[in-house]
User: What shape does this take?
Amino acid sequence: MALTFGFWSEQETQVGHSYSRRLHELVDEVRLAEKVGFDCVALSEQHVALGGISSSAPEVVYGYLAAATSRVKLRSAVTLMPQKINHALRSAERLAVTDILSNGRMEFYGGRANTTIAMRAFNVDPAETLAQMEEGLALLRKSMREDIFTFEGKYYQIPPRQLVPKPLQKPHPVIGIAATSERSHAWAGSEGLAVMSATIYQGYDVLEKMINVYRKNWKRDEQGPLERPRIGVPLFIGIGKTDEQAKADYAGPLMHYAKISTDAYPRLAQIADDYKYMADSVPAMERAANDWDYLLNESGTTVCGSPDTVIRQIERFQKLGADEVLLHMDSVPHEKIMEAIDMVGRYVIPHFNDKNNVVRPTEDILNQIRAMRPQK
Assistant: This one.
């Protein structure tokens, strides 16, 4: 089966650069990603973020991208599910409308929220995010599947109502979650959802364990769109003409991102039981932020090098059971991102999905022809 490739962005803006210009650059990056063969575009949702990440309203961007593109899937990765950030019924409405405008290209991945800075801004109780995500996804699915629906839960009580409009895809677009804990992988599998599996820098063994837990617990949702498990792995990527060039351009930004992106995890582990598991990942996070060799070769999160090197690295994730990889192309200037998109489309994607159209050395082809000739 072909490997799905996603372009994943958090709209990170460089110091001294303009947020408004960065947003228009993102549109250009998405257009190029579609042109060179990426299968989906995934946008993160981050609020009042520090460090340049500015993807605060991806649902607005999806509406624009629905008109600016024609083929790629548009995926929320992820929509934050705490009730005070996104009411689940509003998420269903936005999903349905953008699915119609994109002619059936939307996908929806939900998440709990993983930064204290956002939770405190919206007065979200960290102890309730897991339960609100799970209940919110149940409401979202029910509102799209049933003509007139009702819902009775701890956080949502909906009298008989109708979702207007319904999404174009039937019964609804693919739904999944971002998962970093064993519990969430098991829950996603039991609900028949897709999963975006991340190890929080803890390595390949942890990733393999999480994938196996998800597959072991998989149970098809007979009313849902997925007929089989779907496992996506988010990867931070640096790519250049040579391994040396890629390291020179990307090692610093990738290590810096590892530091800022997980800064809140130790605090979360202390303030809510549902986040306690994150404490186990603190040593790995600290090492990833300071040890390039560990980040690249052991953390199970990062690929970096020449196209041939990146291909070998991605093959490792495919062997672990990944159906798709979401390549985080951010943390460097727009020109570098465009260059990376082009190189992935030119060299990496064809290796996995279109090998017969990849030009090989003439001598290799001749040797194969000679070997197939009848032996006298």
In short: The chain has one domain: 4-372. The longest strand covers residues 231-239. The mean pLDDT is 95. The radius of gyration is 21 Å.
